[in-house]
């Protein structure tokens, strides 16, 4: 009887924590200023997937993820957060993150900004937004992979505090380029948010 009671209490705590995380991952649509320019920020919806794929194709050539993969990720609203940035109803960039409560780790799954809008702070803004959410739900670290050849992105990530942890050999689909696995210690940021 006592074991049932303990299990009931534990399950209740876990459900409250899941609900709390879901609330933190909620995002209200908003107009945001990035380096003095106004953009529209929203949580990605399934209807955004065709434009997300277009941005990904512009940035990476081939789309590493297909429509089905993005749809599945966007629908997982309890442990995923995908953001889109628009201007004049045109999708300019997006970023996605998964939140693993077991490992207490956030992982940036995707980020891309159309080439004509790169270097204007959109990517940095999206990453900062995901970092803030990860800190609020008490994640210990955030990780991401970046192509070894993508030195511009590596510079941005390093400026934001990410450190190279290791190399993932032949990581990328298609050309099998190596990836740097980069990690940000969020415990350092928890008192500063």
Strand fraction equals 25-35%
Count of the domains: 1
Distance from first to last alpha carbon:
43 Å
Mean pLDDT: 88
- Could you give me the name of the CATH homologous superfamily? Gcn5-related N-acetyltransferase (GNAT)
Helix coverage percent of residues? 25-40%
Fill in the CATH topology: Aminopeptidase
Query: What is the number of strand segments?
Result: 8
Protein name: Ribosomal-protein-alanine acetyltransferase
InterPro entries: AcTrfase_RimI/Ard1, Acyl_CoA_acyltransferase, GNAT_dom
Organism: Paucilactobacillus hokkaidonensis
Tell me what you see in this structure.
The structure is a single chain. The protein is globular. It has an eight-stranded mixed beta sheet with strand order 1-2-3-4-5-6-8-7, with helices on both faces. It is built from five helices and eight strands, in the order αββααβββαβαββ. The relative contact order is 0.12. β4 (90-100) and β5 form a beta hairpin. By secondary structure, it is α+β, with helices and mostly antiparallel strands. It has a single domain, classed as Aminopeptidase (3-Layer(aba) Sandwich). InterPro entries: AcTrfase_RimI/Ard1 (IPR006464), Acyl_CoA_acyltransferase (IPR016181), GNAT_dom (IPR000182). Pfam families: Acetyltransf_1 (PF00583). Residues 39-187 form the N-acetyltransferase domain.
């Amino acid at each position: 009887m006592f074991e049932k009671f303990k299990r009931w209490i534990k399950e209740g705590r876990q459900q409250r924590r899941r609900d709390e995380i879901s609330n933190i991952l909620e995002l209200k649509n908003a107009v945001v200023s990035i380096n003095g320019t106004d953009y529209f920020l929203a949580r990605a919806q399934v209807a955004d997937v065709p434009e997300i794929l277009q941005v990904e194709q512009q940035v990476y050539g081939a789309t590493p993820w297909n429509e089905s993969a993005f749809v599945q990720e966007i629908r997982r609203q309890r442990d995923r957060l995908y953001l889109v940035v628009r201007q004049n109803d045109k999708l300019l960039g997006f970023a996605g993150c998964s939140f693993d409560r077991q490992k207490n780790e956030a992982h940036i799954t995707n980020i891309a900004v159309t080439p004509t809008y790169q270097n204007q702070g959109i990517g940095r803004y999206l990453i900062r937004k995901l970092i803030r959410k990860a800190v609020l739900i008490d994640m210990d670290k955030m990780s991401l992979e970046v192509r070894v050849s993508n030195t511009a992105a590596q510079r941005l990530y390093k400026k934001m505090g990410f450190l190279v942890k290791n190399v993932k050999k032949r990581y990328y689909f298609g050309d099998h380029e190596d990836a740097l696995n980069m990690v940000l210690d969020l415990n350092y940021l928890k008192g500063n948010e």
